[in-house]
Amino acid sequence: MPCFRCGARQTDPVRGASPWKRGVRADRQVLICPGCQAARDWADALDRCSGCGSAALVCRLGEVECRDCGHTRDAAPGDLVHSGAPPGGSGDGDLSEEVAAALNRVLRRGLAL
Question: How far is CA 9 from each of CA 17, 42, 57, 102, rounded to the nearest angstrom?
């Protein structure tokens, strides 16, 4: 899943906590990359808890839950799995190309002799 602001994709994680943040936007789970987290207004675009106002929400199994106060509500019906990528951001074609390039590197198919 890409960053909802810039469309950047996660790379293989290092050990420890991920620097990427999760949030909910329009009742869909989104990720925020470390670069976009540097912008002060990134949290303004996320949904807020109706109970406590926190942006620490997670969306799973058709339900949105606040990680701060535990308030839950039903997510809006529709496509629950959504990339959250901005229009014109990284699309499935870009991901397919990235996967093919990674496989070629790992399997060393890129260098035909």
Answer: 17, 17, 21, 13
- The single-letter DSSP state of residue 75 is P
Question: What residues does each domain of the chain span?
Answer: 21-78+85-107
What is the C-alpha R_g of the chain? 17
Residue 78: predicted pLDDT: 60
Residues counted in the chain: 113
pLDDT of residue 4: 87
Give me the sign of the Cα torsion angle 81, 60, 74, 51: negative
% of the chain residues with pLDDT over 90: 25
Average pLDDT rounded to a whole number, residues 3-8 = 88
| 55 vs 75: CA distance, rounded Å | 15
What does the pLDDT read at residue 108?
72
Enumerate long-range contacts of 38-45, CB under 8 Å, 24 or more apart.
39/5, 42/5, 45/4, 45/5
Residue with tokens 């810039």: 6
